[in-house]
Each structure stands twice: as C-alpha cells, then as structure tokens.
Write a structure and sequence with these properties.
Blueprint (H helix, E strand, L loop, with lengths): L26 H25 L2 H6 L10 H27 L23 H4 L14 H9 L18 H7 L5
Amino acid sequence: MRLAPTETTSPVAPFPPEPPDEHRSRAPEFYGFVAWTSTSVVFVLYVLWALLPDEYIVWLGVEWYPSREWTLLLPAYSIVVVLLTYFVYFAIAIARTPAFSDPSTFIDTKAHLPALDANQHFKHADPDAIPELYDIPIGIVNRVVYGPRRSPNEKRPSGETFSSKADKVQESPKIP
C-alpha cells in the first residue's frame, strides 16, 4: 500500500499539518511581493543617484538630493552596524556564559533527577513495570567514567604516578 504525501502517516507529510487552502491567509505572499518590489525600486533609485550626473537628476525634476559622498558612507556605515551587531551578540553570549565550575553548565531547571529518599530497586520488582525516565546525576556519571574518588595520597592501582593525561603530556621527555 502506497501512502499519499498528504496523509498524516506519510513520512513526507508536513508537520504540523497545514490548514486547508480556504483557511490559509495569502497575506505573506503580498507582503513578500511588496518587500521585493520596494527594495528593488529603492536600489534602482540609489544606483541612479550615485551614477547619474547632476544635470540629469535636475532634468528629472529633483531639486534637492543628498551629497554624493553618502553613496559610499551608507554602505560603509551599514557594514559597520552589522559587524557591531555581531560583536555585541557575541560579547553578550560570552558575558552570560557561566563558569565551568558552576553547576548550571551541566544541569538545568528541566532536569528530572531520581528521588533521594525512595529505593529505586523496589519500583522495578514487578516484571511488567516500566522504569521511570530520569537524568543520571553527574556524580554517578563521574564515578562510572573516572572511577571512585581517591584521596590525593592514595596510590593508584596500576602504580601510575601521573594524576591526569595533561600531566603525562607535560612530563614527557623533550626531544632534542
């Protein structure tokens, strides 16, 4: 059985489903056309103002127009405004970024952590039980990835004396 692309079970069906044609507004089409034509007209007028000699502009009936130096200043100022906007957004993002030691870098308000007072093993005693979905606490993740916490003077099981991979790189012998 082949599904039509407009059926909701079809993998190419739009999501969310679009309303029927009689309920859809055509306003975005008109706004797009007006925006396209107006920017085209403004660009043509800008090019004519920049390139036509003064006699032709006066002959067209225009008595006053800005100085020709603005033909270079407007694009230059526009580029500066765009670059300044990017700089300000990046600066705000960097200023609002929390430190690596801040817990908000790895947990947020939407985290669903298991209850500390309930025994999680009794919930799954029923074979038909569906386990509750929750985020794994960062302490458990660290124990699984890095092993149990050791005191600084405790010896490593493999006899290794380096405390991290970074120390291995720093302690490596120099090649002459």
